[in-house]
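Feature request disguised as a bug: please show the residue count (318) next to Pyridoxal-phosphate dependent enzyme in the output. Example input:
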Amino acid sequence: MITSATILTAHARIRPYIHRTPVMTSGGMDQLAGGSLFFKCENFQKVGAFKARGAMNAVLQLSPEQRAAGVATHSSGNHAQAIARSAKLLGIRAYIVMPRTAPAVKKRGVEGYGGEIFECEPTLQARESMLQDVIARTGATEIHPFNNYDVMAGQATAALELYQEVTDLDIILAPVGGGGLLSGTSMATRYFSPRTVVIAAEPAGADDAYRSMLSGQPEVSQANSIADGLLTSLGDKTFPIVRENVQQIITVTDDEIVRAMRHVWEKMKIIIEPSSAVPVAAVLKAGDVFREKRTGIILSGGNVDLERALQLFQEQGK
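Example output, currently without the count:
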């Protein structure tokens, strides 16, 4: 369902609406990793996350009739903001189901783009049930946060841009929750940098993708991690792509995530959220895998509650 032409067309379609984010390097981070790291900084993307790509690609392809009824989704935050922004740019309504535990900074972002929020309990069942109620009342079109080929093709454009700028990468590393970014990254790698190995990173407290690779079937996430953007399980569209194209999944603890986030903040002087720090933590944990390698890392977003981040740093320092 996702071809090289699909990704290139998606990139051309969304280009007027997104940032071409920078690729950054850091001598300090290279020293910690024992190799060369190239960070695709989607924390500088519109809405502060890569989600702006997939959401925009999907919404732009709606028919006039679908646009008239609006769009709906469920999301813990970044996809929610991306859908709300995409809808605002096109002058249509956005209905967003969010768990009540979603970070306040992400709720404020949705409201700032004019999205209408419906809060629910922090379970996948509650999110999906409320979303179906919203769609039944409004007639809105669902734009799933990851289990949607148009969304995946949009997310693939981040890796496409990285490969256009940095050649001869040995490894590309992306975080995995529902698998939209990872699926897109792996497909872009297949077409535009086939010698590059795709590795994923996942919180140990939400390691359904890791367990799914072992069992050969989709497993359910325990959803227990500070990486709030990675608490969902793989979908029936993302799982086959991940299983076919991803060589390895490395899991990291919350303590390792916080340490990685702090390293990036201190050494690179940029803000990333816990989900974005997961692949960085994987590099620092599995040093032998990345030592003397050229590794691309998708920094997925920078929407973090600063007070909460400082609290995490203080707790780790005790």
